[in-house]
Design brief:
The chain is α/β, with parallel strands linked by helices. It has 2 domains: 180 residues, Rossmann fold (3-Layer(aba) Sandwich), CATH 3.40.50.2000; 171 residues, Glycogen Phosphorylase B (Rossmann fold, 3-Layer(aba) Sandwich), CATH 3.40.50.2000. 41% of the residues lie in helices and 17% in strands. The strands form 3 sheets. It has a 7-stranded parallel β-sheet, sandwiched between helices. Strands 11-10-9-12-13-14 form a 6-stranded parallel β-sheet, with helices on both faces. It has a two-stranded antiparallel ribbon with strand order 5-15. α6 links the parallel β7 and β8. α3 packs across α5 and α8 packs across α13.
């Protein structure tokens, strides 16, 4: 079977899905909508073929829609796929559905429906795409509920958290990174979210600064980057906290475990999330988590069991949560509880097989094509 995997950019998540698909009997072709940042440095997996087309050469804006649709129509007719697997919903599944291609397996990336699908054009395009999708891959129950409210049939939704590699992301004692930073006696927090508004990075930095003013032991590892880089640096400079924060930048995916293992507590101030893979990675490495009180996070973090919530958008609430966690002596037990949760529910090797179930649902209606 010829499968086209159509995604917005090329990230570590795309690499994992493409790698898994490349190990199947399918012929896998990869379409990339845009090329904004170096999200993933690894080349395409073996047996996955990148398609040279209009997209994937630079950024994408609304003014590009007419040219993109023409290019997409042309490449679909040339490739003649048996199935298209597309997501995020508004950027990738919607144009495929607008061209009338069937069967379409839409894959939500969490915030595309939870945030982008709330109102206006984002909701209208998402509803249009879901109405014409033969199956939907959802990463959490919160996404499933939104899809149902948009009219998606429950028997066409396959829910599974994308999960993590439990061999790569696992607890380990000792950290060379802490020693290199001179943080052996510090209480180390970690954030791995992109520096974008949806991830509440401004809330996270402000909350850390408030907590750090009262506690000289606190240190923060910040990975990644994004459009809010200037604001992040400004807040740290104004609070006099720049020397207590290590800005690691965009690191190789294979290096992520050493950063989690150098930390004591995982932080996320995201305003919208499905099953956050970075949260699951941290839990797999034995970290308790302090996260914003949003539906996606509530599916994974149970207060007092493997972490805590703080009010979404509340820096003072985040600072108070950090202060409470820093004085506890049972963080290791909370981290072990989190590890058990991901072992049961978020094993990537086991969960990714459910992609095949979505494909079977999509193909059950018979051969398709483009109208």
């Amino acid at each position: 079977m010829r499968v086209v995997y159509f995604s917005q950019d090329y990230s570590a998540h795309d690499y994992r899905f493409l790698n898994a698909l490349g190990e199947t009997e399918h012929e896998v072709l990869y379409l990339r909508l845009e090329r904004r940042r170096n999200l993933e440095s690894r080349p395409l997996p073996p047996r996955v073929h990148g398609v040279d087309w209009w997209g994937g050469k630079g950024g994408f804006t609304w003014s590009d829609w007419p040219r993109m649709l023409l290019g997409l129509r042309k490449v679909i007719r040339q490739l003649k796929p048996d199935l298209i697997h597309a997501g995020p919903i508004q950027h990738c599944a919607f144009p495929v559905s607008a061209l009338g291609f069937k069967p379409l397996v839409s894959m939500s990336w969490g915030s595309d429906l939870l945030a982008g699908g709330r109102t206006g054009l984002g909701r209208a395009t998402a509803r249009f795409a879901l109405e014409r999708s033969a199956a939907l891959i959802a990463d959490c129950q919160a996404v499933r509920q939104v899809a149902l409210a948009m009219g998606m049939r429950s028997d066409r939704i396959v829910v599974f958290p994308w999960g993590v590699d439990l061999e790569k992301f696992r607890p380990a004692r000792g950290s060379r990174l802490r020693a290199e930073l001179g943080w052996d006696k510090a209480f180390v927090l970690i954030s791995t979210r992109a520096w974008e508004p949806v991830y509440g990075i401004d809330v996270l930095v402000e909350g850390f600064c408030q907590a750090a003013m009262a506690d000289p032991r606190l240190r923060l590892l910040m990975l990644g980057g994004g459009r809010m880089a200037g604001l992040v640096q400004e807040k740290l400079d104004q609070a006099g906290m720049s020397d207590r924060v290590h800005l690691a930048g965009q690191i190789e995916h294979d290096r992520l475990p050493e950063f989690y293992r150098a930390s004591d507590l995982y932080l996320s101030a995201s305003h919208s999330d499905g099953s956050s893979v970075s949260l699951l990675e941290a839990m797999a490495c034995g970290l308790p988590a302090l996260v914003s009180d949003i539906p996606g996070n509530r599916e994974w973090v149970e207060p007092g069991v493997n972490g805590w919530w703080f009010p979404d958008g509340d820096p003072a609430g985040l600072a108070a949560g950090i202060a409470r966690a820093e004085v506890l002596d049972n963080l290791e037990a909370l981290g072990k509880a989190g590890r058990k949760i991901v072992e049961v529910r978020a094993d990537w090797t086991r969960n990714v097989r459910l992609v095949g179930e979505a494909y079977r649902l999509a193909l059950a209606d018979g051969p398709g094509g483009m109208t």
